[in-house]
Amino acid sequence: MTPTANTSWIQVESLDVAYGNAPVLHQVSASFPERQVTAILGPSGCGKSTLLRVINRTLELTPEARVTGGQVHVKGRNILHPSEDIRSLRKQVGIVQQRPLAFPMSIQENVDFGRRHHHGRLQRKERDRITASLLERVGLWDEVKHRLDSSATRLSIGQLQRLCIARTLANDPDVILMDEPCSALDPESTATIETLIQELKATVTILIVTHNIAQARRISDQILFLLDGTVAEAGTNAEVMGAARNPRVRRFLSGEEG
Amino acid sequence: MVLFLLKETGLFQGLLPTRDLLQVAAPWSPLATPPSFGLGHAWVGSFLVTGISLALAVPLGIGIGIFAAEIAPPAVARILQPALELLAGIPAVVYGFFGYVTFVKWYADWSGQPTGESLLAAGVVLAIMILPFIASTSAEALRTVYQDYREAALGLGVTEGCLFRRIVLIKALPGLAAAVALGLARALGETLAVLMLSGNTAAMPEGPLSRGQPLTALLATELGETAAGSPKYRMLFSAACLLLLAVLALNMGILALKRRFFEHLHD
Ligand SMILES: Nc1ncnc2c1ncn2[C@@H]1O[C@H](COP(=O)(O)OP(=O)(O)O)[C@@H](O)[C@H]1O
Ligand SMILES: [Mg+2]
After folding, report:
1. Which residue of B has its CA nearest to A119?
2. The total number of structural domains that make up chain A
3. Cα separation of B52 and A246, whole Å?
4. A47 lines ligand 1 (CB under 6 A)
5. Residue A47 CA, closest ligand 1 atom number
């Protein structure tokens, strides 16, 4: 087995990924420490979403996508191994996808969708209590408390984004992969989510893709910077923000390049 | 087109034999005195044949649709779609001959009668004819929904079955209903194969195994030997109008369903 370094919860080694014949990740190696927030930065199209989708194995739902080399370990488990229990992995390593999508059911049922599948049906009172607390935590409760049983498809995109975070949290994952979770949120909702992330850190390992440099500076412990499918910079928040070696990364962090 | 048909019914001149049109129990005996133009046997025939074909083709077609959209390996799915289109393009007369040398012949052999035409044979062959339409329409609907929801749902670690039951089926329902309506419209309007296999006998059918004369078969048979403007002629055009209306209503239903399907797909 590969040596899983000290506190490293997730270890990515020499990962190669291609869509069809077009390589998108090339020899990506990174480690994500347990119960820390790692921000993944980089220009659009550099492979951030692809990396997240490898880690909970949703990438393979895209027919033309292939992992062509490398390994990923989560808590010592080789998750790309063919015998891996994918469903339990996806529950343990939850993802908040870049495109928030309501399922064709009520708000209540959306929140409860994965949870009910993994942990079974609950008494109505217990279920309502859990739903309320999840919606509170993502800052959506006040907006939807009077229409929990109405269709989730009528929510605004910002509301949906928070609903999807609640839906993933409901699975009680050990790792949460967040793909631009605040892209449609106003500053107030963004602050709520940032507070949530800080709370979650006590028990959960978090990877967050963001285009908001200030946000990465505020909430992350570690930073991984990708350029054109390779790791351009990796280290603690202070290291990368303060003294990035790569000139393009420096320009990006200073806002000269976006 | 509707207007031309309506004109020929004599509706505008008050010549329409409305009473006869409603006398479904009366026999079809245009040569008797007085002539009787009951169309009941034809409606019953159409109903039986269409019912049989839908009962067979809907579950099978949607099953094939599910298989093509999600279960089949990509290589198989790639072959399946053109295969269905090919089947859909075969002329009705070929299906008619096929039915004649199979089901009709088998029933004749089995029952000991000289010929074995029956409403059942027509229904079965009709089912084979509409199967590709139902299968490819439902496959398309299911595929679209799967594309949208697969990753979001499976990303939460639920099973394919859960994704199908709780999301895909619900989202694809209008699309599946459109597939069924399409099959129904085609089955109701199909003439040639029905003419060849149903026995084309103007009598009230006793059951699926008896010979009969669905409406389209009656129209095709009788129109050629009917004097323009005669009561029989008016009667035939009235029946054609009703058939047209039924199919038109179905097609409008299909359009509405499809619109609903695509409108609500992304909200
Ligand atoms: N399904 C796909 N098929 C082909 N190419 C894709 C697909 N998804 C993403 N890509 C390409 O892979 C690259 C990385 O995409 P992605 O991981 O989404 O980048 P990011 O999240 O950093 O914006 C981009 O160039 C994108 O165009
Ligand atoms: Mg992305």
Report:
1. B158
2. 1
3. 72
4. yes
5. 17
Centre of ligand 2 to C-alpha A180, Å, is 7
**In terms of residue numbers, what domain contains A234?**
8-254
List the single range of A83-87, A138-142, B244-248 with lowest mean pLDDT: B244-248
B76, B151, B156, best to mutate vs chain A, most A CBs in 10 Å: B156
CA distance B179 to B173: 10
Question: Is A161 in the B-facing interface, judged by CB distances under 8 Å?
Answer: no
ipTM of model over 0.85: yes
pLDDT digits (tens, 9 = 90+) for A113-133: 999 999 888 899 999 999 999
CATH for A43: 3.40.50.300
Nearest CA to ligand 1 atom 20: A45
Q: What does pTM read for this prediction?
A: 0.83
Tell me the C-alpha distance between A61 and A145, whole Å: 34
Q: Which of A152, A254, A241, A135 lies closest to A189, judged by CA?
A: A135
Residue A167 near chain B (CB below 8 Å): yes
* Domains delineated in chain B: 2-266 (1.10.3720.10)
A215 occurs within a structural domain: yes
Q: Does A114 touch chain B (CB under 8 A)?
A: yes
Q: How far apart are CA A228 and CA A25, in angstroms?
A: 8
Q: Is residue A3 part of a domain?
A: no
